[in-house]
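Write out this protein's structure.
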Amino acid sequence: MRVLFVILVLLLSTTTNSYSLIPSSSFAPIVKKVAPSVVNIFTEQKVYISRGLAEFYSQIFKIPPERLMKKTSLGSGVIVSKDGLVVTNYHVVEKAVNIRVVLYDGSIYNAKIIGSDKRSDVALLKILANRNFIPAKLGDSDKLDVGDIVLAIGNPFGLSCTVTAGIVSAKGRILGEDFFDQFIQTDASINPGNSGGPLVNTRGEVVGINTAILSNAQGIGFAIPINTVKFIVNQLITKNRVERGWFGVEAVNLNPQIATQKKLPVNRGALITSVIPNSPAYKAGIRPNDVIIEYDGKTIEDTAKLPILVGETPPGKRVKVKIIRNNKIMDVWVTIEKAR
């Protein structure tokens, strides 16, 4: 019996997941794959201080006034194309007048902003160099599960190519009032300077862009899901701006208790509490107490997913919404409008 147990342990320890680059004892293969795509970003930004005041302080501190009228910041980014497109955070390059990127091999290049979206905190840069770069492979953040192992790679406090490991602690975290932004929470250490760097799964795929921390907490960091980043980047490339869809409802999660009270045939979905007059939903006939269970072919189990799906719907597209009304399932066609 003991021999069989030992054989079983050996078989389990040598079995590799065909979808994972991670061996039993090291993250090194993942880092070697992704690190060449991670860049350190240095920016200079204008400081709104008068020339006279800058010259006054320069006499006191013996610093040239030009330096007093600028400030520097640093962050991280990840290369996403062979011609040098780089994804980072909007707040890393906000108001930047000069941008430099340092590659994994130590080479330094100037970069420019191709487009940015403050609402999602995503910016797209272009490295100004005529050469081929190593792009990272982008994964599918919808396939992430709580408990999955992830790595955060970046340049915290200017310490280049720092790697930390953790797990996905939660999904769909809303940090502010914008329901379009729902973050991946991780306990992989994220610090100032990590902003804009990749969150990577065990297949070496970028599944998020590290963006925020809670200053008074340990092991709580947040990343923008890469599927959201793909949507933003595609719009910045094709339109040089981001257009989001608008539906026009407020909803709460339908849970088993509410479903029982209302005698509904389902216990998951988005229960509509109000509909904005003259909104796309209102024009389509959706009303309070309707329950949305499917949007454009995608199942709606709670309210968290609905605003993201709507936001990523091109304005003008006509989508089928499956609802429950008076215990009957029915289809409603809604023409999505541009978010205001």
